[in-house]
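Example 3.
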Amino acid sequence: MSEMSEEASPPEGIEENSSQITYTSYRDETQLGPIMALIDKELSEPYSIFTYRYFITLWPHLCFMAFHGSECVGTIVCKMGQHRSTFRGYIAMLVVIKPYRGKGIATELVTRCLQVMRDSGCDEVTLEAEVTNKGALALYGNLGFVRAKRLHRYYLNGVDAYRLKLLFPRPQDSASLQSNPQLWQGATHYPAELKEEAEEERSVSFLRELPENSVSFGDVKGLESPAEIVFHLSL
Amino acid sequence: MDRGPGLSENAATPSFSSAQQPAAEAPLPAGDQTNWVDGTVFLKAACDDLAVGELIHGENFSLFEAMSALEIMDPKMDAGMTTSGYKTVEEAIERGAAPVDLTISQIIDVMDHLLSCEATWHKGHSLAQTVFSCLYMLKLDRTTPNVLLHAYCKITRATCSLVRTAIVLSDIHEEEDFVTFGFGLPLDAEGDSKCLASLNAVEEVLARQLRGCKGLTSGKKKSTEEVEPLQDDPELEEQFCEALLCRLRFRKYLYHAYLYMDKPLGRGSEMAQKHIAKALTELNAIRASSAFLASRRSVKESLGSVTTASGQPALGFDESVNRRLLAPTPPRSIDILSWNETLKYFEQLLNDLNRICSLSSNPELEDLLQYIVDVQKSQPDLVARARLQLRLLQDGKLLGLETIADGLCRAIKMQNRPAKETETYNFLNQCGRWMLQLIRTMCTNPAWQRRKLGRFIQEWGSLLEQAEFSREASLRKAGRDGNEEKTGWTDDAVMGWAAESLSWVVTHFLMLGFELELYSPNEYCMVYWYLDHSLMTLMQYKLVKERRLHEAEFARVNDTSPESAKKKGKKKRPGTVKPIANKEIRFTPSVLLLQCHINLCKGLIWMLVALTADRKIAHRETVFNSELERFTQRFELLHKIVVPEPMTYLDYREAIRHRSQSIKELYQLSYDHFSAVQQHLQELNQVVSKATKMESVSKTQRLADIRQMEQVAARNRVVLQIAHQAGPGDNLRVTFDFSQHPCFAVAVVKKT
């Protein structure tokens, strides 16, 4: 789906600081009109009423709105659910109207959704953004999203998209950081001495200066000799 | 009906049967045992019964249905809402939108705009909105009286048909790539194979006419046969003749080139290349004619959106007549390529086709893969890539000549084919299937290619793992029997080759990520580190292979014992013959290229480590996760395979940890690697320049690579010096870009 462009352009005629922006969670159907109007105006992709209802009615707690006074100046629409073996959050639409961009409103909207998703047990969050939308890409990059894939001519206007993905910390990954070094060294096939030695020796033209049948390739990580590789694979 | 706040999962389907419709008016005429009833009243009553926020939800109405639903009458979604323009082609023609009687400059405008439409179609838009927005193309028979237009349209249609067939056959397009769906448009017409006959006839007349004009202007006497001039002004006759001729000839040569590309390699390629060269010449003539045609334009407009050489809009095009043929999706905005873009597009297409035709008849598998990578470097569009794939895999054979099994044996350098139903045999069979898929995938667009490769890596990885398991099992069994004869070096060669291939794909996969701009600056270090790991693994397998070949050669030359014949093809363990020194192994271009890539990676890794330690790279912590999660996410796929050995985040942190090294030493370390790159590049340059067996495309690309890598190494060395001289701290801001090489970044320094 689409993402608004969040170029860091100076606000036009908006003097108020961002503390005067208030954020509310979606309440009921009466707010659907303003949300739709906002999104339809800013995004290139046309969405039917069914699409809005699909998201907002099923996940009202994943829809936030930003207000300046009584004016709705930004909104975010998301969903979450089981995707293959993961529980995945998905950001469907994000819009901040032009005069209010570059004030961190979008970051705040996304942050609120990410918090709900994390607390609801999501493993990861994905979304699509146009490759040309530098502002949105920077925003998500700063929040820890990785560009997982590029989608060729994803949008109706023929522009490529990135699929962005944020992985929430998993217990098993963090555990691996504290694990006994002996253990993981045992898990790889290399003797620890070899690793040490290889790290020390970083000869540049490693191909030429090796003794006959040499073991080390001067690698940062320490790899086996050719003979051992064959052995390792065939045994 | 459920009245919960959310959607009801079990919402009762409202019944429209007349039994429950006491208030219904008389039923409408029924057919096939169906009664049609006006449901307005019922619906109205049901709506009044619902509070705000309540919905009726059918279980089968999911996101997909919601997303594909169109709101009728909404102009943003309903393609039928644009009611302006003609409704049918007949109506358009009737109202005089496509007169057949055209002036010469009008004909040229139609030809040019049609060419722009064709290029736009190749770029992924529907036929209906491009080539068949031409009313003349829709009703080609009408144009018979206008021989010039008729011949041009006919060969255009025949060419489009060839292009579409090739793309459908290659099956490398995705829906976003190319619209093969013809919407019932008259693309394949009988008798189009004879389109050349009518074109040749027209060309003949025009050529005579041109000779006539030339005779006139040079003061010679008129040719004996009078031909009717194309237009009134005799001064302009020659230029008009030329403008028409080059357009017609361009079409002819392009059509010939496509036809010859369908023929087997060898003579087919040669002839195709000849015609491509001629088409390029005509394309230049078309470009040259633009000045003359544009000078006759009365109103000067901005050149951006112009789709003809003259800059005049062409007659006889109307997009609206095909509106009803479009798929039921929101209207896709389409911009026809400009005239200049069109010329550029065809120029690139012809050059790409030329590169594809230049392929020799028997490259080794490894060189073939490199060749595809090299062809892809010029970013060929779908039409060229489809041709590439058809050329590489004709009738399921490599280049239409060699079965994949033969190709594999040649790549692995197997003297003896494995016996049927053995493990090796089955494994090789699977390798063969996988290799065919790999070649096909490598012809797709880079974005799609990388996603597909990800899946391949996993499949290939588990294949290798399985092979390793069964080998282990059979070895254990063999060990008990005291029979070790089961694993000869042939088996090792097979596994070695498979592991080398997988490492190659992983390397390619990681490098493609740079081209697709998937990595952000805070990931560069880990990606170069993993890439380096993968390159090192690849290098090792390559060297093992080279060594084995060398040893086999050595043994063949030195072994004069009578048993030698018996031994051949059997057991040959490393160490049974005199070991070969690394320096004796010949340094192939691919080995040297790897060496350069490895040094570039290492140079960049240590440069990034040093600059980060020196606080010259901005570093930002993220709230929701850390580098660990990004590492996991980036390399999760590669953690599921056996080769290259999976590397964890901890391995990464350990590897880039600088124990006692000072920042200066880190800078020096990086500097040394870049110096090494420059040294290896010289060697590579020599080897490539001298190489005789290399594909010409690869040779050209390699020489270009060398220049790019030289730039990367040289510029980064300068930045390292500047950073070092600036002293410690964040007094400089260093960023990276890919202006010199698609995969290897150059550092850019700014004062803070």
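Chain A is about 35% helix and 25% strand. The first helix of chain A runs from residue 32 to 42.
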